[in-house]
Amino acid sequence: MALTLRDLAAERALGLRVLAGEAALDRPIGWVHPTELLDPRAFLEGGELLLTTGLALDERTSPGYARGLVDAGAAGLGFGIGLSHERVPDALVGAAAEIGLPVLEVPRRTPFIAITRAVSRAVAADEYAALVRTERGQQELTRTAVGKSGVGGVVRRLARLVDGWVLLFDASGSVVEAAPSSARGHAGELRAELDRLRAGTRLTALGEYEVALQTLDTRTRGVLAVGTDGPLDTAGQHIVNAAVSLLSLALEQNRAQSAALRDLRTGLVGLLAAGQGDLALGVLATVWGGAPEPPWSVLAFAGQATARRALHDTLDADTVAENVFFAHSGSSVLVFGAEDRRDQVLAVAARIGGLHAGLVERVSLVDFGTAVDRAEHAASTARERRVPLVRHAEHVGAELLELVEPGVAQAFAARMLAPLRQHDETGRGELVASLRCWLEHHGQWDGAAARLGVHRHTLRNRMRKVEELTGRSLDSPGVRAELWLALQVC
């Protein structure tokens, strides 16, 4: 901490006495400058304690002299008595008291060099303390950056080192990291400043805080915001600069790693689709701990590139990704995994907006390549129709029905489903809904029963009733197809 006028006046060995400006004694002393010039303003930078014996001063010139020192930003005046003046001129003391200039009376026995040495020792000690603090801060940040806590750890460590709060923004202005977490509340107030900052550093005030905004040296422009109760001192500035360098390096490494993982994901989907399942699953097990167990629900998402990237990045950070695998595939994002995760993935896409999904269900490893093509085709149809989701099975049925005259299709469907609807209208069952669900699950009893909320034996009984009423066997693929098409019409 810099030596103040109050600290200097408290050193008994110097014998200084405060004559004026006591309220401003907490000003720091930048340096000491002895001079007998009547107007020394051209030689001052601000913050100096000026020492004089008043050789050129008298009662007439003293008021103007005091005002000149205030204009130059001097910290205060040390007036040596016993040489040019036996006492400090009253006009000088009065003027100084009026304008708030601290005046210290220096006794004849105290040489000016003693005051200079006292200030010099304090400045040297302050600079050494700042150097030590800077080195320790840089070491702490470096250890944190190379540790497990990464970017978030650097942000939290920096906030403690500067005794303030820190926000790390990405290129879009979204908060990547915040320390403490309550600092996120300042993000909205800084948006306009972020828009004005193109490169370098910008200082701004935010309520009681002074905020330093500094761009990171990365390909994707990020910004570090550091808020403190007052201006950062020299050590604080060096520590922030070190954090900026470490964060820039870490984010660039993360970006490169993320890009490599994205490419690897895409390559693995290509291998799976090409029938190289063993190789792809081996890599999946090594890098991601394994793939979801088939059969899978396969989702393809079409949309603008920004929306697809947002979906990929959100899944990468969301816990839903623990049980699905996702990758960029051509002009879509492909997601496959267990059926119980399908709705969660669709919910993530709905939050992002601008995405259209195609769905293929009950996909085995052998059928994966075909399922990808079907899902992407359904997604393309969903985008053309401007709907959020198209199921491939329904899409295929709809395409076939387009080849049939509507009246004929409706008559066919009514005839096929009439006995089932008559049965349902008597309140003796839910055959139509159960048949639809069973067909959607490709005849899988457990999955369909779970979706309906009934026991699988109950579902088996209902399907036997369907066979009895229609006079057709559900073991026949042709019968299943006819019933499915009929359900699409009605």
UniProtKB/TrEMBL annotation:
InterPro entries: CdaR-like_regulators, PucR_C-HTH_dom, PucR_C-HTH_sf, PucR_dom. Residues 10-122 form the Purine catabolism PurC-like domain. It comes from the Bacteria. Gene3D superfamilies: PucR C-terminal helix-turn-helix domain. Residues 431-488 form the PucR C-terminal helix-turn-helix domain. It holds the Pfam family HTH_30. This is PucR family transcriptional regulator. It comes from Amycolatopsis samaneae.
